[in-house]
Amino acid sequence: MPLKEQWILLTSAPIYILVILVEIILSNIQLKKFYSVKETILNVYLSVLNASFDVLFRIIYVGILLWFYENRIIETWNSTLLYWIAIFITEDFLYYWEHRFDHQIRLFWAVHVTHHSSEEFNLTTGFRSSVFQPLYRFIYFIPLALLGFSPIDIIFVFAATQLYGILVHTQYIDKMSFWFEALFVSPSHHRVHHASNVKYLDRNMGMLLIIWDKLFGTFKKENDSEKIVYGLTKPLDERHHPVRIVTHEWQSIWNDLKKPIALKTKLKYLFMPPGWSHDGSTKTSDQLRAELNND
Q: Residue 1 — pLDDT band, cuts 50, 70, 90?
């Protein structure tokens, strides 16, 4: 593990433990029931699984990024400050598209759905990782290596922004100041992202900056008059099963691929948005939203 990443881990761990304990205590005192033992344990379990895959696969994806870095387009950056500003902004932009494709391509949604499957929303939900994401996430960061950003710095910046991304998984912060909400992802923005309410589906994809959602049409403001329902549009039957929680969407895909349909249609079940069906028996988020607007 790079020294910079070790530093982030050592400095952030005590902070996370403290704020999570405070949130657990407050939610219990106030009878808000933001936490349950089963969900909290499951979130930790999924985080450990994700970290294990990341460590096992790291030598491969770092090697790939190093190859592109050695063949980079920009040889050196004249300004250290500009270098760090550029890598934070560019990496956040690329993450936005990775996250958006995770929601809009069913093959990748089968990986990412785990993060959205909890019916609770609290700080430990931020640790509810998409287990197999380390196997392909690095592909989106190849342009960074080509632009002359060191793979070690790419990993460091992603780890740093992930730390921020965990902190927005809370119901205890209502709205931030206007200027903050205009530029950065806030807890309010991310509550929308985790909602299963039809009008909120596939919205607010950013990790650090909310400006990408506003630029590319995926932004939605939280409506205080509508209660957010967390989890999936179709709740899981075995939502605490240690294997099913990771594989349930893969099983659904397999069931669809076994249908007596043409190869082209089978491929659509892999690459069209989640909920797409050839017979209209299930619907995508856009189709559900269109129906809602027509009512």
A: low
pLDDT in tens, 126-184: 999 999 999 999 999 999 999 999 999 999 999 899 989 999 999 999 999 999 999 99
Inside any domain, residue 224: no
Give me the numbers of helices (H) and strands (E) for the chain, helices first please. 12, 0
Same domain, 83 and 123: yes
Is residue 206 within 8 A of residue 213, CB to CB? The reply is: yes
20 Cβ contact partners less than 8 Å away, ≥ 6 residues apart: 122, 123, 124
* The two three-digit tokens of residue 95, written as one number: 């993450």
Q: Write the CB contacts of 94 (distance below 8 Å, at least 6 apart in sequence).
A: 140, 141, 143, 144
Do 57 and 172 lie in a common domain? yes
Domain with 56, as residue range(s), is 3-216
pLDDT tens column, 189-246: 999 999 999 999 999 999 999 999 999 999 999 998 889 999 999 989 888 999 999 9
Residues 182 and 257 in one domain: no
Q: Does residue 151 sit in the same domain as residue 280? A: no
Q: What is the CA radius of gyration of the chain?
A: 20
Q: Which residues contact 19 (CB under 8 A, 6 or more apart)?
A: 123, 167
Tokens of 7: 């530093």
The answer to whether residue 239 is domain-embedded is no
Q: Are 144 and 200 in the same domain?
A: yes
Instruction: In whole angstroms, give the CA distance from residue 183 to residue 222.
Output: 15
**CA–CA separation, 273 vs 87, rounded Å?**
30
Q: Is residue 72 part of a domain?
A: yes
Instruction: Domain count for the chain, please give it.
Output: 2
Residues 83-108: tens digit of each pLDDT:
999 999 999 999 999 999 999 999 99
